[in-house]
Amino acid sequence: MSVASATDMSAAAAGPASLRLMSAARWRWYEFLFWGIAVACGLSTLAPALGFTVPVIPTKLMLMSEILILGLLALSIDLTLGYAGLVTLGQGAFFGIGAYTAGLMAKYGAGVAPLSDPLLGLLGAGLAAGVVGFATSFLVLRGSDLTRLMVTLGVALIVEELVNKLKDITGGTDGLQGVMSSSVLGIWDFDLYGYTAFWYALGITFLCFWFCRRLVNSPFGYSLRAIKGNALRARAIGMPVNARLIQVYTLSAFIAGVAGGLLAQTTQFASPDMVAFHRSADSLLMVIFGGAGHLYGGLIGAAIFRVMQDFLSNITPQYWLFWVGIVLILLVLFVRNGVIGLMMAASQKYIAKVPPKSGALK
Amino acid sequence: MLTILFDGVAYGMLLFVLSVGLCVTLGLMNFINLAHGAFAMAGGYLTVVMMNWYGISFYWCLPAAFIVSAVLGVFLERTLYSRLYDKTHLDQVLFSIGLIFVATAAVDYVMGASQQIINLPAHLNGRFEFLGASIGVYRLFVIVICGLLTVALQFVIGRTRFGSRLRASVDDGRVARGLGIDVTFIFALTFAFGSGLAGLGGALGASILSMDPTFPLKYMIYFLIVIAVGGTTTITGPFFASILLGVADVAGKYFVPSIGGFIIYSIMVLVLIFKPEGLFARSTKR
Amino acid sequence: MQRRTVVAGLAGSAFAATFAGGIQIAAAQEVVKIGLIATLTGPQAASGRQKVAGARLFMAQHGNKVAGKTIELIVKDDTGVADQTRRIAQELIVNDKVAFLAGFSLTPLALAVAPVITQAKVPAIIMTAGTSVITERSPYFVRVSFTLPQQTVPLAEWAAKNGVKTAVSLVSDYGPGIDTQDAFKQRLEERGGKVVEQIKAPLANPEFAPFLQRAKDLKPDALLLFVPAPTAGSLMRQVVDRDLAGAGIKVIGTGDITDDDQLNSMGDAVIGLITSHFYSAAHDSPLNKKFVAEFKQANPNMRPNFIGVSGYDGMYAMYEALKKTDGKTDGTALVEAMKGMKWESPRGMMSIDPATRDVIQDVYIRKVEKKDGELYNIEFDVVKDVKDPLHK
After folding, report:
1. Interchain proximity A60–C120, CB inside 8 Å
2. How many independent structural domains does chain C possess?
3. pLDDT at residue A98, as a whole number
4. Of the candidates A137, A148, A320, A334, which has an alpha carbon nearest to the alpha carbon of residue A245?
5. Residues C79 and C217 occupy one common structural domain
6. Do the chains contact at C107 and A174, CB–CB below 8 Å?
7. A173, C82: Cβ pair inside 8 Å?
8. What is the ipTM of this complex?
9. What does the alpha-carbon distance between residue C261 and residue C170 come to, in Å, rounded to a whole number?
10. C191 lies in a domain?
11. Nearest residue on chain A to C83, judged by CA atoms?
């Protein structure tokens, strides 16, 4: 990743700002590698059918779709946290609203063909969450980090209580049952092995990611970073700070809603867990764990966090939490800016050893 | 009616003692220590072990819980926390959550997952009638102890030399150091004191809230609500906020049980909409 | 390969050995796998511990060979979250090819796997979750624990017979709680009593005082309580503190509130409390004495409760079903084999209703008493062969 910063610097030194911005927006080899690995994970499950087995990657399609969905949720947080500097602890609210919207559309739209279409369900999920996000966005404009943390948490807790109370619609604590997802694009049914779920989640996540990537490398994205850097100065040079924050918060809610919709469709139910505090907290943890402000942080954080949890809880189902805690503590003590920070530090060390060649690597 | 008010005040007082340490670390030292509840859990479990395993009197448990949690606090402050004072808030969140996980699993390993209950000495149980209100003796005990603590705390921070040094260290550590104040020592002592108070709160709350390994996570939200509503710049802010929240929560659940869960959250959101720095925030010039 | 370094760094050789043991899959045809999905972390962790301990005890007593097959128990932590439970169930079915799923501590967790087991035709043995409706959601659910209405109706009968005219119920606000309050109200009112008010407390609730005070101020003859067993301790502490007995209110409930595992730490103040349930650690039978003694020996600091015994009985049902199918693991055949099965459990006689796949068992009315220096639920009345009243 420091390859990126190195080229950034050389571009900045060489030419005008526009050149630098364009070079920052270019796709890098490690990004292709990242998504290549994701696709390979999916393909590796087909290997046995072709007569050979892939020993390294286990057949964990369900876990992988879950990672993608949580990664998407974390991505939505990264957008507000890593780029606009807004701390939220209430993303679970939008995730849950999305999940219940998609769930209800699939459940009651079963007879009406277009309503139960999964893609339409995701759009509905995103819109419902986006509307609530927009309506509550004015809450995050004022106050300190702690205030924002608590206001967003408060909204999430109220949504959770509402889900519990509105039994007739949501099924209350027992969750929304009987969600029957129709096939994706009318072709692929959701199967027990989770093939469809995985490719569907991968496609949607990549689509959202691609959109976010375009966004953060656009003037809009740079204005967000300016606000994060210093809101007062950003305002002074005529930037509509509040409007920008409302826009990014609403968009982030939309994406979180899509992620929730994905979970409801692939698991065929929605439950209050999906709105619960731990959902918001976990996803925030994943972003910090992976490293905020790179878009990849959430995805990497979700992947490592989940794989680590799955792995440790297989060894010690009762006390895996202990080892996860130790990893978190060590990471904070010795690394800056999460796993991505760790990678950057490592590659910087590498570049320090062989400085002249690295620029040509891309 | 009076009974409800009384119960609410007692509940609020308990919340205050549990969260005041967090107020100190967050407001005065600017450190987000979400693992605060772990110190309360340490005090609570110490009480459980001392009373249920060794049959030691409840009154000895209270100071013991304070001291042990404070020592634990100093130990962790010196070994871990002090390395994080200059890190970002996000790093502090990640770190303290990690600490919660470790504490939860460790307690689970040693004490088991089921709830631990303590049985108070007989003369603290029971109730009596006063002005038409039914007063629980133990809750009265909690109110008295917490009230005394609040007065003492206010005095120490506002009126003593230590208090002014602490405030100076917080306002500008470098200048304070230049004036010959041992900032490191002051911070360590403050942290210990905050942790000790949490431990005491845990010991007092062990019989009302009951202890299980998920205690730090379960009550973290409540601590944060108290701090957010009360503001972090004073001690009196969280004090009144705790009582307000305690009374509102208890009264709400009593009169309209069906929406009881909403009340405490709604109050918080409303307060933060109109006063983002908390109800009782003193304006800071920083 | 990265994984291996993580293990070595984190946990040392002990864990690495466990892990290596885990991936050595024995010859597939000879092994029958059982996936036990239990809640082992979080607020409900205590229930998972009981379940796993009960199941392990059964295997220790009866060996791991049935009908020529080797039984392998795979324990997973669902963290009490529904979508995790569903994912784990799916992975156990697809990757591990388990013959049975078992566990499920909360109703939503069981409901979440219903579509999966129906699609995969894998039997799922419910060892805790107590809402009536669960077994109707999939023909592959078999319940060996209990349903709340099954426990509550005999209690309502008992209350009506013992002079309870008015009652208030206070339950946790989720499936089993609502089943409890409704079944109680219906039966008590059929017997001429009246439920004055039904109070529902949030499932995760630290402070019961206001709810209890409200119940006290309504001055009923009896107060019916239900919360999930792992949170019973704090509720009972506050019940004692509020001195309801002094106000002339009889406190009754399902056995969840006098959970055998926690009862001792609740203190002498709960002596005399009346509850109804299907299992007591004090149940007087040679089988139960052996069960309790060996359970305690294997798990210091724990006493078996109704969840522990359900874990034990669940294993029994699965073993017997395998014997009947001669080791074949066809899901539908295994469910058929369990229908109508009848056996003596440490709790007493029990059977699986062929029509509903739900448990039929004796429900006891018990009173908390002190025996040999420990608190026990002593059974003093029994209703034989109770079926869940809500199944049609």
Report:
1. no
2. 2
3. 93
4. A137
5. no
6. yes
7. no
8. 0.83
9. 22
10. yes
11. A267
Question: How high is the pLDDT of residue C168?
Answer: 92
Domain map of chain A by residue range?
A: 61-361
Residues A11-53 have pLDDT tens digits of 444 456 666 666 677 777 778 888 888 787 777 766 666 666 5
Q: Which chain A residues contact residue C51 at CB under 8 A?
A: none
Give yes or no: residues C40 and C128 share one domain. Answer: yes
- Which residue, B99, B70, B73, is CA-closest to B62? B70
Give C111→chain A minimum CA distance, Å: 7
Q: Would C264 be classed as within a structural domain?
A: yes
- List the single residue in B114, B126, B261 with the smallest CB-CB distance to C46: B114
CATH code, B49: 1.10.3470
Q: Which two tokens stand for residue A317?
A: 């189902």
Cα C306 to the center of its chain, rounded Å? 6
The SS3 assignment for B212 reads coil
The one-letter code for the residue type at B280 is: F
Task: Choose the closest CB to C230 out of B7, B115, B260.
Answer: B115
> The domain that contains C37 carries what CATH number?
3.40.50.2300
Residue C13: inside a domain = no
User: Among all residues of chain C, which has the CA nearest to that of B221?
Assistant: C206
Distance CA A272, CA A97 (A): 10
Judge contact between A19 and A11, C-beta under 8 A. Answer: yes
Q: Does the predicted model carry a pTM greater than 0.90?
A: no
Q: What is the 3-state secondary structure (H, E, C) of chain C?
A: CHHHHHHHHHHHHHHHHHHHHHHCCCCHHHEEEEEEEECCCCCCHHHHHHHHHHHHHHHHHHCCEECCEEEEEEEEECCCCHHHHHHHHHHHHHCCCCCEEEECCCHHHHHHHHHHHHHHCCCEEECCCCCHHHHHCCCCEEECCCCHHHHHHHHHHHHHHCCCCEEEEEEECCHHHHHHHHHHHHHHHHCCCEEEEEEEECCCCCCCHHHHHHHHHCCCCEEEEECCHHHHHHHHHHHHHHCCHHHCCEEEEEHHHHCHHHHHHHCHHHCCCEEEECCCCCCCCHHHHHHHHHHHHHCCCCCCCHHHHHHHHHHHHHHHHHHHCCCCCCHHHHHHHHCCCEEEECCEEEEECCCCCCEEEEEEEEEEEEECCEEEEEEEEEEEEECCCCCC
CB C220 within 8 A of CB C198: no
What distance in Å separates residue C271's CA from the closest CA in chain B? 14
